[in-house]
Structure formats: structure tokens, C-alpha cells
């Protein structure tokens, strides 16, 4: 199917010349807004996979210091990459949404009518907790009694109070998961055999309950005296006779260093979904780094990465005089690695989404054949619609004016397309374009950048705090800021040199460029859990379930707070089960 037939209906952009745009990792590029000579005839195609026993070139040993292991001096160009690109056309395959009504939902909403409490009561800090517990109160009704306990972004220990009929525990991500810290329920005085388990799955089990920020699916432990523990976001439960692990740990050796996934609670959300082919992820960036032989990074999912002719190939930076190459990294390769690195394959790192199709289109650098934002967006929307897929578009870029044609596409696709866009790296008030559209459209998420436990120099930071380096870069803030995501993270990298492209991993992918794909990946999990949601609903769920930072409620510095994958997915499942 030739998608170029869609373009004649778009017309030529009204803004001529060049618009300065930013890759929000601190570098700049140009994007041509005049595409009057646009003549693409490509179609989105898939990459055929050949593995031939690829080995992981690195030993991702557990962290033994306060700083991430530097990976940028290591290259895998000596490793034979046999993920060859082919032009297998998948346009003939149509994927329908799966029907949730086919499942026999049996959630028990036995807590209906209880007063919902004030969220959150602080948990007992665990060994690795680095953030002060949130101030809150215990909400109690006369009968029965309920305790609501919310954790920090670190590892927390949750303790059952006697005389309470319902203990409700919410883990909120765990930045220390890779170092062995766990969000744990302490039942060390209880035998596991004395407890009745009611653990939720993607289709059944658990209890629907609203702790104050949206009805969600909670796991439960039931005791013979009628008391219950309701919980979410918990990594493990410690009994007198055993320890029950609940989080999902893939076998990728770099996963222990991906604190960003841990802090978002992705390891808990994976219990319910690792992504679905009902969702497509579009990346509007630089395209992918490819070798002269047509290979992409060995730790990207080549079996369901879609190409759009030569446009999906990163042209890298070039010195304009003489077109001589200079060494550079592939921004689009790093973005895709965060969202969709090949997971549980025993090499490299883990992507947030393991299964959804991904298309990486080049809209940056002003190279011949690059697309405008409007053109790339239309390619992605038309393809996703033809496949019956929901569409999450990642845009780790910004600057200049908003293309009218692009804004029109945003406005026309508020049900089926969610735009996740970097807020900007100026470190000042004001959200960059096109992320500023979040102030006008509910299917746009403007993403700011947060630290983990330390900055790139090893200086301790409160997890979730807004990144700001005096004299370098800082996360923009202001009206329209929606969510915060982690930055300065580990991802895949392609390096261009005089001779060819090589691949390795970058331990410091930074800027709101890096925060944005973290949020986009989580959004794709939410939509995978419930594809009947609209894009507006996905945005609302992510905002409602975010971990509150800064001033109580939504504020100009942190928006709705730090994205929480587990609570968001549980909220999506509750809506699928009929909850309001």
C-alpha cells in the first residue's frame, strides 16, 4: 500500500523556509516546514528478523556505586548484527481490537459504599527510601475502619495495623528496585497458608476500589477474621514461612540499571500487560541508525519495527560544505530504545513495551526526504487506522511555530491518537511548541524531566524533582505541563563515523527528550490494557494516577506529577470492568 497517496489532500504548509527545532537532549537541528516538493512514494514496511545467535556484548553487573556504569566508551561494532532490513509488506494484515466482553470478569466490588479516604498515609520507609514520606491522614469510618497508606518513589515497607478492617497499600514505583530495594508488605508474623489470596490479572480477580484518585483494580489478601489487605504497586510480600515476589523481572542484563522503569512501576504493570498489537507507537524524530548493510541496533525489536522507505534511516548530522560526515549519535535510536527495546531476550536492556508495532520517521535535521510534522503524523494515523490500532506518537522535539496542518490533525484525532511531546529544555517558564498544544487538546501530553536519586554528577537528588542544571539545561515548566518522566537514563545508541554506523548503549540519554519516551511507553501499556479507551481518556488516566509532586494537586512546576505505570494500568482495567 502506497501511503504517499494521502499527501495531496494536505496541501503545502503555509510557513515557508526553515524552522529551528530542538532535540530535547540539548542539541539543535532544523526542520523544513515547506514540503512543496515532497514526492515520497514509500510505504510502511516491516523488518524481517534473523538472529543467528547474537550475544550480549556487555556484562551489566549490578550497580556497586552511586553512579551509573558509563557505557558510552563501549561499542558493539565488532559484533555481527544480522538483523537485516527487508521490505516485507504487512499492509495486507488487519488487526481488530480484542473484545473485552468475551471475558468473564469477576472483580468483587465488596467495598462499595465505604468512604474513600484522604490519599496518602505515609508508609514506613524501607532501607533504600530516599524521599520523605508524604504528609497525609488516616481516613476512618465509624465501622468498618480503613487505613490508606501510600508509598514514596523509593522502596517502602507497609505494615498492617491491628483493629483495622481494611488496610489499603499503594506502592508508587520504586527507584531502588535495581539495587535490591522492594516495596514490601510485612507479614513476617503470618503464615502464608492462613491467608486467602485474590490476585488480579488482566481479565479477572481482585477488587474494585477508589482510594481517592480513581477506581482501580486492587489485589487482596483475606483473613479469617474478615479483615482484608488491598494493595497495588507491591513488589513482594514477606510471610513467616516464605516470600512472595509479585513484580516481573525480565532476563535482560541491563534491566537492573533501568531505574527509570522501576521508578515508574513498570515492573508491576507488566503483570497485566507488556504491550499489545492493538496499539501502534509512532516516533517522529531522526529515524533509526542503520549500517551500510542495512542493520539496526541488535537490541531493538526488528520483527515489528516499521520502516517508511529511506525516511526511517537516520541521516545523522553532516557538515554542509562537501557533505562530509562527523561523528554523532542517533537521537531516534535512543528514543526507540526507551520505549521498545527488545525485552526478555537475554541481551542489553528492556523496553517498556514488548509487543506493539513501532514506526520511526525522520522529521529532523532538514535532510532530503525528511517529512514535516504534519506529513509524518498523517502517515502514522492513516496506517494505524488501516490496522485497527490505537496510536501513541512520541515527539522528543520542539521549537518554532506550530504547523497549522499538524494542529488540525491533533484536533481531528482526539479519540484515536495520543501525542506525547517534550516540554523543552530551556529551564524556564513556558512550554515549548508543539507541546504547548497540551493547553488546548486533551490528547496531548506535555512532559517534563525528573531526576532519580542523583544527577549526572552523582549529587543526591530527591526522586522526582525537576531537573535543572544552572548554565546547562533544565526542564521547562508552566501552563500546560501534564506529567513528569525520568531523564538521564540508559538506552540504545547508534554512532556515526567516517566509515559506518556502530551500536552500543548510552547511560546518560538526557533532556525532556528522554523523559518523553518513558511517558509514551507507559501510555502504550495503558492503551494495551484497554484499547476501548479514547486518547483523551488515556491522558486523563495518566494524570489522575500520577504520583503527586510539589504543591498538592496539579501545579505549574510538576503538572499532575510523576507518571505511575501500575496504577494507570489498573485504572484502565477497572474502566474495562465497568467502573466509572
From TrEMBL:
<dbReference type="GO" id="GO:0006508">
    <property type="term" value="P:proteolysis"/>
</dbReference>
<comment type="similarity">
    <text>Belongs to the peptidase S8 family.</text>
</comment>
<dbReference type="Pfam" id="PF00082">
    <property type="entry name" value="Peptidase_S8"/>
</dbReference>
<feature type="active site" description="Charge relay system">
    <location>
        <position position="331"/>
    </location>
</feature>
<keyword id="KW-0645">Protease</keyword>
<feature type="active site" description="Charge relay system">
    <location>
        <position position="513"/>
    </location>
</feature>
<keyword id="KW-0378">Hydrolase</keyword>
<feature type="active site" description="Charge relay system">
    <location>
        <position position="285"/>
    </location>
</feature>
<feature type="domain" description="Peptidase S8/S53">
    <location>
        <begin position="277"/>
        <end position="561"/>
    </location>
</feature>
<dbReference type="InterPro" id="IPR036852">
    <property type="entry name" value="Peptidase_S8/S53_dom_sf"/>
</dbReference>
<keyword id="KW-0720">Serine protease</keyword>
<dbReference type="InterPro" id="IPR000209">
    <property type="entry name" value="Peptidase_S8/S53_dom"/>
</dbReference>
<dbReference type="InterPro" id="IPR023828">
    <property type="entry name" value="Peptidase_S8_Ser-AS"/>
</dbReference>
<protein>
    <submittedName>
        <fullName>Peptidase S8 and S53 subtilisin kexin sedolisin</fullName>
    </submittedName>
</protein>
<dbReference type="GO" id="GO:0004252">
    <property type="term" value="F:serine-type endopeptidase activity"/>
</dbReference>
<dbReference type="InterPro" id="IPR050131">
    <property type="entry name" value="Peptidase_S8_subtilisin-like"/>
</dbReference>
<dbReference type="InterPro" id="IPR015500">
    <property type="entry name" value="Peptidase_S8_subtilisin-rel"/>
</dbReference>
